[in-house]
Amino acid sequence: MIYRRFGRTELQMPVFSCGGMRYQHAWTDVAPEEIPAANQKHLEATIHRSIEVGINHIETARGYGTSEMQLGSVLPQLPRENIIVQTKVSPRESAAEFLETFETSMKYLRLDHVDLLSIHGINTPHLLDLTLRPGGCMEVCRQLQRDRRVRFVGFSTHGPAQTIVNAVETGEFDYFNVHWYWVNRRNWRSIEAATRRDMGVFIISPNDKGGKLYAPPPKLVDLCSPLSPMAFNDLFCLQRPEVHTLSLGASKPSDFDEHIHALDKMAHAARAIAEINERLTAEMHRVLGRDWCENWETGIPECDEIPGEINVWEILRLYNLAKALDLVDFAKMRYNLLGNADHWFPGNQAVDFDDAALREALHQSPFRDEIPGILREAHALLHEAPQKRLSES
Questions:
Q1: Residue 343's closest CA among 302, 285, 289?
Q2: CA angle, corner 212, sides to 207 and 214, nearest 5?
Q3: CA nearest 127: which of 175, 86, 93?
Q4: By CB distance 3.0 to 4.6 Å, which of 3, 31, 217, 301 could disulfide with 305?
Q5: Does 208 reside within a domain?
Q6: Are residues 310 and 262 in the same domain?
């Protein structure tokens, strides 16, 4: 295992973290006696394998159903000084409710403190305000720090790029959990801002949100050879020293293996990654055109500035990946969340829009005349039954 300094926390963070949202029994709380023994044994085997390979950062959340409860049967058996535990609690209107939710997490985890507490899902300005306003959630966190029940406070986010930067630039957080990988590099600006403030940088879901890389299409496999798509994405992210850890949402003990093998290539990966990146980029240019690939993001506002709140930026990104790299299943999975995932994945699909009104909203885009037709093509390609977030399914 390779470890990196997790910003100003000074924690030595493994470059892979054990995410806790895929091995639990249920997405809602249940009585402990309802946890199947086989599922609990499986979860504990996954945690022990994580520790065995040096992944001593265990990450979960109050919103992950029985994850915390089940971890509470194994984490207290491990040497506390040898593990880094993170949980996440969503902002609440009431500071008392936030504290009560945190207490539920601690009761389930059976620990006297967590190393990292994330405000879970700062996706909108309102949720940032709930966190930082006088008498808000952050005041609870500061008291928990004084009581030595929380060491460091961060936030997780699925929000728009500017909202994330704004949260980082408050200077109130020690680290953040953010999306950034080859298929979505929009949040690099927030990572740069976090680096200037010496914050820890935790990358969310590189295998799933990073392209559903555990089930890659043959075309992507060929383009990434001799690396697997997952190994390429690992090395692509970790070649940046600003990135400290990638979350692996393990569902079984063997899910760590391919990522551990990727670390063997770290010392000599720069050239291989560059060659693969060139092939991927060349294929994007061949299929979609160089001018489009280099400029499609220009002048695309956030979805709340577009009629019907169509998430044009996200739809075009998914269209590009589906058309050029055959990432159709991934693009369908993400596209059909639009309109069904609230602030966790904001905006709507490209249906029933007025071309003239859309072009006006996109007046700064060099492709404002072409985009309405592309959106219709994207909808025809990607639309299926509405999807729900994993935690709601």
A1: 302
A2: 70
A3: 93
A4: 301
A5: yes
A6: no
Question: What does pLDDT average to over the chain?
Answer: 94
Q: How far apart are CA 353 and CA 95, in angstroms?
A: 41
| Listed residue (227, 230, 183) closest to 333, CA to CA | 183
pTM over 0.85: yes
Q: Quick one: 288 exposed, middle or buried, by C-beta within 10 A (0-12, 13-18, 19+)? A: middle
Give the domain extent around 357.
289-392
Q: How confident is the model at residue 269 (pLDDT cuts 50, 70, 90)?
A: confident
Model confidence pLDDT, tens digit, residues 222-242: 999 999 999 999 999 999 999
Does residue 259 register a pLDDT over 90?
yes
Burial of 240 (0-12, 13-18, 19+ CB in 10 A): middle
pLDDT score of 53 more than 70: yes
Count of domains in the chain?
2
Closest of 353, 351, 358, 324 to residue 335, by C-alpha: 351
Statement: residue 103 has pLDDT above 80 = yes
Residue 213 and residue 122 share a domain:
yes
**Inside any domain, residue 104:** yes
Report the C-alpha gap between 195 and 5 in whole angstroms.
12
Query: Same structural domain for residues 255 and 305?
Result: no
Residues 168 and 296 in one domain: no
| Interacting residues of 88 by C-beta distance below 8 A, sequence separation 6+ | 60, 61, 62, 63, 117, 118, 119, 120, 156, 177
Does 278 fall in a domain?
no
Q: Within this chain, do residues 316 and 235 fall inside the same structural domain, yes or no? A: no
Residue 189 tokens read as 């600006």
Whether 18 and 69 share a structural domain: yes
Return the structure tokens found at 31: 């009585």
CB neighbours of 80 closer than 8 A, spacing ≥ 6?
111
Provide mean pLDDT across the span 250-256: 91
pLDDT on residue 388: 56
Q: Are 348 and 386 in contact (CB under 8 A)?
A: no
Whether residue 260 sits in one domain with residue 353: no
Q: What pLDDT is recorded for position 387?
A: 65
Q: What is the pLDDT of residue 389?
A: 53
| Same-domain pairing of 263 and 293 | no
Indicate which CATH number applies to the domain containing 69.
3.20.20.100
